[in-house]
Amino acid sequence: MRKAQEYYVDSQGGREISTVNLSDGGYADNFAFNKRWYLVLWIAVLLMICILAMRVFSLTILDHYNYALGASDNTTREEVLRSVRGKIYDRSGVLLADNESNQSLVVRYHQLDAFEGLSQQERDKVISEISLLFDVSVDDITSVYNLVKERREDGIVAQRISRDQVIYYRASGLSHPVFEIVKSAARVYPRGPLFAHVIGYEGLINVDELEQKRNDFLGEGGGYMLTDRIGKRGLELVYEDVLHGRHGVKTILVNNVEQEIRTTDVMQPEHGADLLTHIDSALQEKMTQEMERALQTAGSVRGAAVALDPRNGGVLGLVSLPLYDNNAFVHGIEGALYNSWVSDKDKPLFNRAVSGTYPPGSTIKPMMGIATLAENIVDPATQIESRGGIRIGKSFFGDWKAHGFTDLRRAIAVSSDVYFYTVGGGYGGVRGLGIERMSHWMRVFGYGQETGIDLTQEASGIYPDADIKQDLVGERWYTGDTFNTSIGQGFFTATPLQIANATAAIANGGTLYQPHIASKIIYPDNTEKEIPSVVLKGDIANARDLQIVQEGMRMTVTEGTARMMQSVPVAVAGKTGTAQFFGDDEKVHSWFSAYAPFESPEIVLLILVEGQDGSISSSTVPVAKEILSWYFRNDR
Q: Do 197 and 107 belong to one domain?
């Protein structure tokens, strides 16, 4: 059956232009449907074109700068934010170690490629000019440059450069970004020589030190770098980890010519903690002044003095003469000055108070007294006669004078050698301690071992026995060796610090402390950490034995070898000592150990004058008198 159709005729020309199936409505609907989809399609195409056009506009116009940077090898670089080193103070807040700002010439690792891009002639010219301007050898500059390449971090060429050098370098036109002048900080010691042997010094880190710190990574443990400064000696070295702090890091975006674009991340530095010490700076100054006067009188330039608080082991003062200026080391010591110190026969860099070992002489007689009583060698009231010495076979062991009959207290006071020969080695019916028991008791008081003070290069000294003598000179032990050891001579050596510490153990009633200089750590947030006292040995002797020996030391001042000390405003107890030493029969070491007040000791003072003329009287007692008189004056 034929479908019905409707014809549309052009009104102007009578032409048939379209037909529609009238018997089936689907044809009309399909036409309308297709027309709508064409419209949607065209709209979608137009939207896509608009979006693409906007994206092109954004890429080429709006974001051109950012993408241009990316195309020019954008990268990030970490810049160190340096921590500030903690300061060091005396017990009253007097500043002993401070920081000062200065400028250094640094080889920048991130500029190496640019410098390597120059011709050899151009590089040599820059290095030559830097060598002349900053007074650094070409070899040293080259060495730092190569080290920077090897370790891939900045390195310092010149420290503490002057303002004129900075101006000339920047204006000369010869500078190159690989050699950059940067702000830095370094130590300054306001009272330099006075505390050099205590504070020590810091300086630029070397490769060996850097390797020791290689496990401290930047951002984790604070880190160490070639441009860092580190403690080299003294408190600066011992408390390095406390004083150093932790560096921070700033991450920055830079372009291919190392221009900074923006900071992307910052980790702030943690500054080092401050260190408070037991040191009394005024006492330290007084000790130094009086020691220098005494040395001049004694015809010597070498000596040491130690002041301890017997109640806790705190070091109140520590002097070693001759002095040196630790400021000289901070920015790299001049070769001529360093060589003069090293070659000086008087060794100013040597800390005699903790590193010097000497025969202690009669200063050990109070400790021998404790051993004598503890081992029941004789009753404290037993009288032993000194006629000026004793003879064993062909050997004569002299006393410095004939003291007559003395008991233990008086033997300490007048320093009778014969008494201690007898109780030490045995004589005239007294069996004596013998070297084994003497060794035991002297080690109880700390002889022959380090005290553990918070300083570097401490010596242990020697408390001899048969094995040690065999090792030293290849000979067996004789009774005469025991005699010599019992009065602090022979192979027996000790440091001034050991003698002071042993004296403190008698003064305080039998406690041997570990001497310590630092008393407190003060962190940047003002929290504090006390550094506790450490007891090396408690209850060294019973109260009766200690009292007897203390009374003997008090008699040293009231009627013995240190009667000059009676003029001190408080009661003083002490022990003098004179020791001969190998190599010079005409000179002696003069000692004096003391504590005060006698009833309730606050200070132990040990004085050593090294190598004084043996013909003059002790030069140490007058020093102690002046220091303790000053110390206990109300107006000091």
A: yes
Neighbouring C-alpha atoms within 13 Å toward the C-beta of 450: 11
Three-state DSSP class for residue 18? strand
Q: Give ∠ CA 31-36-41 in degrees, rounded to 5.
A: 125
Please, which residues have CB within 8 angstroms of residue 572's CB and are 6 or more apart in sequence? 554, 557, 562, 565, 566, 594, 595, 596, 597, 598, 628
- Name the pLDDT band for 116 (thresholds 50, 70, 90): confident
What backbone torsions phi and psi does residue 304 show, to the nearest 5 degrees?
-155, 155
Where do the DSSP E strands lie in 449-555? 512-513, 518-522, 528-530, 535-537
DSSP, collapsed to helix, strand or coil, labels residue 127 as helix
Name the pLDDT band for 42 (thresholds 50, 70, 90).
confident
Q: What CATH number is given to the structural domain containing 610? A: 3.40.710.10
The residue type at 619? S
- Cβ(217)–Cβ(223) below 8 Å: yes
Contact 519, 530 (CB under 8 A): yes
Q: Which of 429, 546, 417 is nearest to 485 (CA)?
A: 417
Among residues 13, 37, 61, the one where a domain terminates is 61
pLDDT tens, 536-571? 999 999 999 999 999 999 999 999 999 999 999 999
Q: Say if residue 80 is in the same domain as residue 48.
A: no
Strands 16-21 and 75-81: unpaired
Whole-angstrom distance, CA of residue 577 vs CA of residue 594: 11
Residue 573 dihedral angles phi and psi, to the nearest 5°: -120, 150
- The answer to whether the CB of 298 falls within 8 A of the CB of 290 is no
Lowest mean pLDDT, pick from 178-182, 210-214, 500-504, 522-526: 210-214
- Which of residues 43 and 439 earns the better pLDDT score? 439
Task: Give the torsion through C-alpha atoms of 487, 592, 558, 552, to 10 deg.
Answer: -40
- Quote the domain boundaries for residue 18: 5-61
Give the pairing of strands 155-158 and 88-89: unpaired
- Cα 147–258–144 angle (5° rounding)? 15
Does 225 lie in the same domain as 98? Answer: yes
Q: Are 412 and 384 within 8 A, CB to CB? A: no
CA distance 332 to 99: 16
Q: C-alpha 250: how far from its chain's center? A: 29
| Position 634 confidence tier, pLDDT thresholds 50, 70, 90 | low
Q: Which residues are registered as beta bridge partners of 376?
A: none
What is the longest distance spanned by two Cα atoms in the chain? 167
How many helical (H) and strand (E) elements, i.e. helices and strands, does the chain have? Answer: 23, 25
Residue 546, SS3 per DSSP: helix
Q: So which residues are the catalytic ones?
A: 362
CA distance 368 to 424: 8
Separation of alpha carbons 262 and 79, rounded Å: 12
CA angle 576, 360, 314 (to 5 degrees): 80
Q: Judge whether 514 lies within some domain.
A: yes
- Residue type present at position 505: A
Residues 305 and 248 in one domain: no
Give 206's DSSP letter: -
- Taking the C-alpha atoms of residue 628 and residue 573, their distance in angstroms, rounded to an integer, is 12
Number of domains in the chain: 3
